Amino acid sequence: MIISHEDKDYAARRWAVSVNRYNGAYYYSREICGIMIPLVQTDRSWVTVNTRRAVDHAIVFIHNNLHPKNYDWLKDYKDLVLVCGIPETCEKVAHLGKAIYLPLSVNVAEVEAYRAEKTKEAAFVGRPSKRLGVSFPERVDYLEGMPRRKLLAEMAKYKRVYAVGRSAIEAKILGCEVMPYDERFPDPDRWQILDTRDAARILQNKLNSIDE
Q1: Residue 67 structural domain
Q2: Based on the domain organization, do 199 and 186 belong to the same domain?
Q3: Per-residue model confidence as pLDDT tens digits over 78-91
Q4: Among 89, 90, 107, 187, which residue has the fewest nearby CB atoms (within 10 Å)?
Q5: Residue 157 scores a pLDDT above 90
Q6: End-to-end CA distance of the chain
Q7: Can you give the chain as a three-state secondary structure string?
């Protein structure tokens, strides 16, 4: 079983919002389903987005690192492998199952296709909520609420990008300098370029260790 971004309830909630409609969890789920799952051999089910539904003996991707308590409903399920994109989250959800760290990944070849000449200075990339209370230099553009293809095409034009997570990885692939802005992640070097196919191999090895 796969509970993903194609779930009807999840899709309805996603289209009910505006600027957050094109969120990272949605696009990450697409790559997990399209690239990672076909490469991983397992008898476990998959939960790639938070629909507040799961099944026992499943692999669950934890997307919300800021508020992992949003996943406390998982306590009703057994034998879960919780996949966390940053190591700090593992400890916060360890009471819900076997928490493992899998570095965030992207489809590198897809992103590389958007590389372009740098004609603009600096931009923030992410949800508006992630920049609340943050003071940016005056001449910073805000790339928000865009479908991913449009976002990548625009981001590729900037010399410097304020971003974290997968957006930061994509910026590096596009040849942008990644600038820190989130006090939790002061070092942009933590966002390493990792292809989704390589992440699948890492996940396979970790699952083998767990299930053997």
Answers
A1: 2-105+194-211
A2: no
A3: 999 999 999 999 99
A4: 187
A5: yes
A6: 21
A7: CEECCCCHHHHHHHHHCCHHHHCHHHHHHHHHHHHHHHHCCCCCEEECCCCCCCCCCEEEEECCCCCHHHHHHHHHCCCCEEEECCHHHHHHHHHHCEEEECCCCECHHHHHCCCCCCCEEEEEECCHHHHCCCCCCCCCEEECCCCHHHHHHHHCCEEEEECCHHHHHHHHHCCCEEECCCCCCCCHHHCCCCEHHHHHHHHHHHHHHHHC
